[in-house]
């Protein structure tokens, strides 16, 4: 796609701080500016945490490709899609394991009896554990368009529980949205309340993640970049509401998608993971950190089967990783379908967040696949 007059202006007011940032991280800025000019996404916000310090939090481009569209800012709130899986669902599971409220080896059917109801005694679904769901090796399919037939949250969850497995649990790794839908519901059974209110009280508020939320209020709609012109399901502009169709039917709160967040909040979350991983004193952990080092190390270890890059909830760098070539083997991260990513190098004590609305105006472009590793490499080389 060649640059044209409808693409956003990436320029913004200049000051000494801007000049210094673009001097140090010039290669990374060029990657993003060229991506915007090529139509990979209309705008982006990005941030870097290194050695416990925020070294950059900046924005480029606009909400859409129209020149009158609002400019992105460092505080812009995004639909972060599947980053929900780590920032909300996995983080909740980590805390619940830490507090001895759940065991990752617990059978899913003990928490959600509907998953085994009506199944034969030897059905492999009876063997699914929470660990299988977290490691994306439950045997459940990767994605199902439940929303085409399910009109209510209850019917969608029921359809999810009735899925036939495509492999025995633990045998095959396949990234699974249905698995995290069920994981979210299983955690809610133990929580005794919805995922959104529990995460707000137990994770977001303690970490000062004041912008992070499910289901933003209508008043926030205009300050959130749109994700799509939906011409085939909801038949409206999707802005300020979750893009994922299954999450939409679930009311905007789901284990696999639904969170809206910004760079500062996601870096605060990353900092909590980094601090816990590096902690030496259990007493200090209890006093200062939300997560214990033991649970962070447990959840950031790769799981089976051989060849899988998945840890518990988290992904780790693999060949041709979106993290680029410089993240260590002690790194974890996740991607979001809407064009967002979070990568944390636990060894180098670095976290990088890139938020875009690459699905605007539709989800056809895949250019971000090349942008992400080039951007991450440029940041790491600058550091």
Can you give a write-up of this model?
The protein has one domain: DD-peptidase/beta-lactamase superfamily (Beta-lactamase, 3-Layer(aba) Sandwich). By secondary structure, the chain is an alpha+beta fold. β9 and β10 form a beta hairpin. α1 crosses α2, α2 runs antiparallel to α13 and α3 packs across α7 (177-191). The protein is globular and about 65 Å long. The protein has helices at 16-24, 26-38, 84-98, 108-111, 130-134, 153-161, 177-191, 195-204, 245-249, 263-278, 282-288, 293-299, 368-382, and strands spanning 43-50, 53-61, 78-79, 213-214, 228-230, 236-238, 259-261, 331-336, 340-345, 350-356.
Strand count: 10
Name the shape in a single word. globular
- Percent range for β-strand residues: 5-15%
Residue share in helix: 25-40%
Q: Describe the main β-sheet briefly.
A: 5 strands, antiparallel
Task: Please name the CATH topology.
Answer: Beta-lactamase
Structural class: alpha+beta
The low-confidence parts are: 1-8
**Biggest sheet strand line-up:** 2-1-10-9-8
Taking the alpha carbons of the first and last residues, their distance comes to: 31 Å
Using the 3D structure, state the CATH architecture. Answer: 3-Layer(aba) Sandwich
SSE pattern: HHEEEHHHHHHEEEHEHHHEEEH
- Number of folding domains? 1
Number of helices: 13
Keywords for this entry:
10 strands; 3-stranded antiparallel sheet; Beta-lactamase; alpha+beta; 383 residues; 13 helices; 5-stranded antiparallel sheet
């Amino acid at each position: 796609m060649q640059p044209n007059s409808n693409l956003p202006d990436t320029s913004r007011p200049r000051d000494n701080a801007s000049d210094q940032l673009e001097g140090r991280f010039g290669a990374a800025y060029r990657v993003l500016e060229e991506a915007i000019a090529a139509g990979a996404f209309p705008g982006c916000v990005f941030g870097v945490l290194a050695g416990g310090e925020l070294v950059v939090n900046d924005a480029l481009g606009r909400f859409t490709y129209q020149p009158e569209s609002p400019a992105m800012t460092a505080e812009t709130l995004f639909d972060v899609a599947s980053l929900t899986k780590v920032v909300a669902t996995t983080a909740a599971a980590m805390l619940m394991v830490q507090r001895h409220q759940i065991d990752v080896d617990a059978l899913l059917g003990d928490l959600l009896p509907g998953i085994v109801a009506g199944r034969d005694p030897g059905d492999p679904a009876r063997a699914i554990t929470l660990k299988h769901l977290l490691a994306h090796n439950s045997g459940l399919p990767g994605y199902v368009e439940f929303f085409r037939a399910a009109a209510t949250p209850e019917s969608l969850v029921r359809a999810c529980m009735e899925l036939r497995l495509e492999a025995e649990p633990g045998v095959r790794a396949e990234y699974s949205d249905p698995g995290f839908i069920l994981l979210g519901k299983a955690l809610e059974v133990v929580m005794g309340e919805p995922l959104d209110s529990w995460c707000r009280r137990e994770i977001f508020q303690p970490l000062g993640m004041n912008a992070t939320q499910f289901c933003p209020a209508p008043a926030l709609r205009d300050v959130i970049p749109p994700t799509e012109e939906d011409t085939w399901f909801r038949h409206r502009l999707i802005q300020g509401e979750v893009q994922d169709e299954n999450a939409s039917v679930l009311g905007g709160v789901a284990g696999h998608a639904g969170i809206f967040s910004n760079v500062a909040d996601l870096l605060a979350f990353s900092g909590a993971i980094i601090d816990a991983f590096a902690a030496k004193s259990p007493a200090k952990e209890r006093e200062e950190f939300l997560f214990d080092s033991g649970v962070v190390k447990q959840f950031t270890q790769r799981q089976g089967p051989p060849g899988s890059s998945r840890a518990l909830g988290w992904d780790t760098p693999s060949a041709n990783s979106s993290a680029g070539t410089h993240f260590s083997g002690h790194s974890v991260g996740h991607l979001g379908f809407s064009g967002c990513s979070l990568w944390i190098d636990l060894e180098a004590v670095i976290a990088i967040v890139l938020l875009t609305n690459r699905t605007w105006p539709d989800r056809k472009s895949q250019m971000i696949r090349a942008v992400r590793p080039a951007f991450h490499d440029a940041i790491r080389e600058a550091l």
